[in-house]
Description:
The protein is 70% helix and 0% strand. By secondary structure, it is an all-alpha fold.
Amino acid sequence: xxxxxxxxxxxxxxxxxxxxxxxxxxxxxxxxxxxxxxxxxxxxxxxxxxxxxxxxxxxxxxxxxxxxxxxxxxxxxxxxxxxxxxxxxxxxxxxxxxxxxxxxxxxxxxxxxxxxxxxxxxxxxxxxxxxxxxxxxxxxxxxxxxxxxxxxxxxxxxxxxxxxxxxxxxxxxxxxxxxxxxxxxxxxxxxxxxxxxxxxxxxxxxxxxxxxxxxxxxxxxxxxxxxxxxxxxxxxxxxxxxxxxxxxxxxxxxxxxxxxxxxxxxxxxxxxxxxxxxxxxxxxxxxxxxxxxxxxxxxxxxxxxxxxxxxxxxxxxxxxxxxxxxxxxxxxxxxxxxxxxxxxxxxxxxxxxxxxxxxxxxxxxxxxxxxxxxxxxxxxxxxxxxxxxxxxxxxxxxxxxxxxxxxxxxxxxxxxxxxxxxxxxxxxxxxxxxxxxxxxxxxxxxxxxxxx
Length: 452
């Protein structure tokens, strides 16, 4: 596959019946305008996980951030993370290739399999987690601890159906779901504002940067998925601004509701949904949010298939999404709880993508990408580009080791001791990792330029 053309496709070809191509070597229809992309990313920016993730912003009970500091962390982290997401979306619109196929230009086809496999693991893990969260939300609305298997099964079927017709699913999100979600968010905002909330950490800014890092990480988790959808954008400008504006507005709103709901529930994340059902008719509006949570599982399952396409480009995507949907549903039926080590594992994989994005952005706009990346099946390897990615990853783990295993955290603790370093309030793992990877990529690109 050579670089996928922007494909000036006729209005007839990009009509409502156009769907995503079945194999990787087919040019994508360019059907998504600004409104469709805004609605897609606005829906992805609102999630039940986003509400519960407010706990990572406020911090532990007894050491909470002040409300003003939490708001600032949410806005700053969202703006930084979503800017990265929007750039990844722009690259997808320009190349017309799925996210992992874009990495062929950065690393070469064979080496692009490394981030591809990591992204498959991440997407499957988050897909299982999303079905679990949907079942939890449905049980909360129904007021029962039973029937979990039924809710997981129904959510899995809905997720799989959406992935078979992805562009049709995005059209439904734009026309109907976004409106319903907007009404539910407005309703909860008004109800929560009327009730008020305590501010136990008033005036406290200690932990502000770690809270900002946590918010950045949520936005960054969509970076290796963005191009899977914006490859269908009508223009790169629409892809950038639709992604940036839709996701920014939604995530800030979602997190702020989550912070308020968490404060109203006494700081207990396990009781946070009770704040939503505790208002008048709250169960009905929460049901809307539970049903639309399937767009999160849809995104993870569909992007898993797009990642596998980078490994096996000729396999029909409907076969891939159908099989992955079944796999994720079966795993969600068997896995009822997520241990701390599993959360840490997902966090470890997530830390991979901050420096990876830095390498991609710098090389695309300032390095080899300016001359045109080779996205063909036989794209030659560029092993030097692994170096800045590895450096960025090492900086991230050095500043904020992921507690995936005792030996792993001990390794980085010894590295900190060797250079007499103790993590400080200003040592943002995301930002420093990004900066180091970006600078190293610039140096590698300068070395490659004379040979080119």
